């Protein structure tokens, strides 16, 4: 009997699909049933070939071999996942396999994962595409009932392949050029470099910022305060003497309420989450990195199946999803969400005007709960937090607007104008979903804040109890956090002067995609281009220098704007893949030429006094994402050692987070208050139940430094080896 082969992207997803399809017999890298055989990749099993595969001369990192411009790009099986590739390829060659269902992630990169495997294995039989937005049993069954021909997604594959080849041509060539030219481990890329430039430019603005003093004048009457305004509405006065004289003149006078204006206002609920907005809120509320939030979302999507597909850039749903909303509401009728979800269900028909917009739904709709009821006790703390954010937003967007009455007062005192404002809530509306907390940022200016106002009428005369001049200072722009950097990556058009490019950036969604932005930020950390101070992101000297050394064209967000527009055109069949890649070859050659002709220099300014135990060179002090490290500057050597690691373990004296210092048996906790304790002693306490419930797991979890992108790391490693010969 002929069978259908199903190719998933990960083992966990493959096993779930196999369970739904009744595949109960296990094999080497697959599950089999009467009608289906389900197998899986491990992410990518096939990748673009390294330079030396094309030409042995390209194995040597040398300016003389640049640029590297293969006429036809080749793919190779990734060495570490060869076993699983062979398992998949053997299944594709089985005589009883009649057709294939592509069940990798429903997006550009997921399409590339499957198609490269199929090409490498020589698949020639019919293929169909499973395109779903959640991993529930219901979604999988319905997806298999509505499979589409794989050829419908050919253009999406061409777009993904073009993106990959362009990044190879530009990224590897420029990275090799920078590394060889300046004898340092430097890398650049069309998304990485402009993102780093945002952080570096902001730091320059802060460094050159000169604060200016200004003054405001406020008066206090019976029951409210009011702020002075000039004829244009400005509150700031630059002259101290003028501000003080104004305050002195008005004190003790009587003012007249020349206007009392009450305005009924509504604030609609925020749109449902896409990945970037969720990462922003998770960083603001819980200090999760973009990478952490994506990882947690993947778990809630693939393992717990309580949330829909995470890698989406849409904040709306389409009409065809509306019919599932009652079932989704029933699924979240648990714990503290139950009363509000039940109230929404009672007030049917559902108010979906803030959630449904067919025109704004791309490959996937917004992140919302699935029809699967959660077992909250099975969720970890971080999973519970992210689930909470999504459920509250889902409930909020189905609620009516927040309604309030705003009162604005205009007070005239001796010919001078003062204003005050207050707000009375009429209907909580969607804010009922956020009864215990709010993610809204304080956007009030420092001169006039909302206050509770007494009952006042136009024409009332009010005494001025006191008047005072208040001093203030202009503030520099704030450093980026991961939350604000994600916003800047999504909307970088402010950094682009060209109007056409700015428009393209707005249309294409900015720097990178929701699925790749977290990885880009992680790469900046692993390359030691940025470091974290509290929540703030600060460029290192290396980061500042690499932005200056990279070709100017590569530093601009405008480049990725052009790329994304053209990649989108390829996905829609409006442009040929070959034309785009051909231009990228010319572009890579031009960038390499710019680096070769550069007369700039690179300097290590973080050299320690400690020598490398392997090669004897002085080690560099670097601040990794999770602590301080010593790294050898010699790329032939590659030695690195952790000095301190930031942990979640709390000091028993002052309860602040402790650092983990040393290596092996000598590892020790250290706190700023002076407390010290050996790691071995801390573990014993944990085993005896005297340490916190999950302290040990928390501080040991993910302490190892993240490495850079594997392909680039492999290339740098090979370069080191050939330098040592």
TrEMBL record:
Region (Interaction with DNA): 187-192
Gene3D superfamilies in UniProt: 3.40.50.140, Topoisomerase I, domain 2 (1.10.460.10), Topoisomerase I, domain 3 (2.70.20.10), Topoisomerase I, domain 4 (1.10.290.10)
Region of interest called Disordered, as start-end residue ranges on this chain: 701-725
SUPFAM superfamilies linked: Prokaryotic type I DNA topoisomerase (SSF56712)
Residue span(s) of domain Toprim: 3-136
EC number: 5.6.2.1
Protein name per the record: DNA topoisomerase 3
Organism of this sequence: Lawsonibacter faecis
Lineage: Bacteria, Bacillati, Bacillota, Clostridia, Eubacteriales
């Amino acid at each position: 009997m002929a069978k259908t082969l199903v190719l998933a992207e990960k083992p966990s997803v493959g096993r779930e699909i196999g369970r739904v399809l009744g595949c109960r017999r296990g094999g080497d890298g697959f599950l089999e049933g009467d009608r289906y055989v389900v197998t899986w990749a491990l992410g990518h099993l096939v990748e673009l070939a390294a330079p030396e595969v094309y030409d042995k001369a390209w194995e040597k990192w040398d300016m003389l071999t640049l640029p590297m411009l293969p006429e036809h790009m080749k793919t190779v099986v990734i060495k570490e996942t060869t076993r699983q590739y062979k398992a998949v390829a053997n299944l594709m060659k089985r005589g009883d396999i009649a057709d294939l269902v592509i069940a990798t992630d429903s997006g550009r990169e997921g399409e590339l994962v499957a198609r490269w495997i199929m090409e490498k294995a020589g698949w020639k039989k019919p293929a169909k595409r499973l395109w779903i937005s959640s991993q529930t049993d219901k979604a999988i069954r319905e997806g298999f009932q509505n499979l589409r021909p794989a050829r419908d997604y050919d253009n999406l594959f061409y777009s993904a392949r073009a993106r990959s080849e362009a990044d190879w041509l530009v990224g590897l060539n420029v990275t090799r050029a920078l590394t060889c030219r300046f004898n340092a481990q430097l890398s650049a890329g069309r998304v990485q470099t402009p993102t780093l430039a945002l952080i570096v430019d902001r730091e320059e603005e802060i460094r050159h910022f000169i604060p200016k003093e200004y003054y405001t004048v406020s008066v206090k009457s019976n029951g409210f305060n009011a702020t002075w305004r000039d004829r244009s509405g400005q509150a700031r006065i630059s002259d101290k003497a003028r501000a003080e004289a104004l305050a002195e003149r008005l004190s003790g006078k009587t003012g007249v309420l020349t206007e009392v204006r009450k305005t009924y206002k509504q604030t609609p609920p925020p749109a449902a989450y896409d990945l970037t907005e969720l990462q922003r809120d998770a960083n603001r509320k819980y200090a999760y990195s973009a990478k952490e939030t994506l990882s947690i979302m993947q778990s809630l999507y693939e393992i717990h199946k309580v949330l829909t597909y995470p890698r989406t850039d849409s904040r709306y749903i389409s009409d065809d999803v509306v019919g599932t909303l009652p079932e989704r509401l029933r699924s979240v009728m648990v714990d503290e969400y139950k009363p509000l979800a039940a109230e929404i269900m009672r007030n049917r028909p559902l108010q979906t005007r803030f959630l449904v917009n067919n025109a704004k739904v791309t490959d996937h709709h917004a992140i919302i709960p699935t029809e699967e009821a959660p077992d909250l006790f099975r969720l970890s703390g971080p999973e519970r937090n992210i689930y909470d954010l999504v459920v509250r937003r889902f409930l909020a967007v189905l609620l009516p607007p927040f309604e309030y009455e705003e009162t604005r007062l205009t007070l005239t005192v001796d010919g001078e104008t003062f204003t005050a404002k207050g707000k009375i809530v009429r209907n909580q509306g969607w804010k009922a979903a956020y009864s215990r907390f709010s993610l809204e940022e304080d956007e009030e200016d420092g001169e006039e804040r909302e206050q509770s106002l007494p009952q006042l009428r136009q024409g009332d005369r009010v005494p001025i109890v006191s008047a005072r001049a208040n001093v203030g200072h202009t503030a520099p722009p704030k450093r980026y956090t991961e939350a604000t950097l994600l916003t800047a990556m999504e909307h970088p058009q402010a950094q682009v002067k060209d109007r056409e490019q700015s428009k393209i950036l707005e249309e294409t969604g900015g720097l990178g995609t929701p699925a790749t932005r977290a990885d880009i930020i992680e790469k900046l950390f692993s390359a030691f281009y940025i470091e974290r101070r509290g929540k703030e992101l600060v460029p290192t000297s290396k980061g500042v220098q690499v932005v200056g050394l990279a070709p100017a064209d590569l530093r601009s967000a405008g480049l990725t704007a052009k790329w994304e527009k053209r990649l989108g055109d390829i996905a829609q069949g409006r442009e040929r893949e070959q034309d785009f890649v051909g231009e990228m070859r010319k572009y890579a050659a031009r960038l390499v030429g710019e680096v070769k002709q550069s007369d700039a220099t690179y300097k290590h300014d973080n050299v320690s006094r400690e020598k490398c135990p392997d090669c004897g060179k002085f080690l560099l002090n670097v601040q990794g994402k999770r602590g301080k490290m010593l790294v050898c500057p010699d790329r032939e050597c590659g030695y690195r050692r952790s000095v301190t690691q930031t942990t979640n373990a709390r000091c028993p004296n002052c309860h602040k987070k402790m650092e983990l210092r040393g290596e092996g048996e000598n590892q020790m906790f250290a706190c700023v208050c002076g407390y010290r304790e050996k790691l071995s002693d801390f573990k014993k306490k944990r085993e005896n139940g005297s340490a916190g419930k999950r302290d040990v797991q928390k501080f040991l979890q993910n302490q190892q430094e993240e490495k850079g992108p594997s392909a680039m790391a492999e290339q740098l490693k090979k370069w080191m080896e050939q330098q040592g010969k």
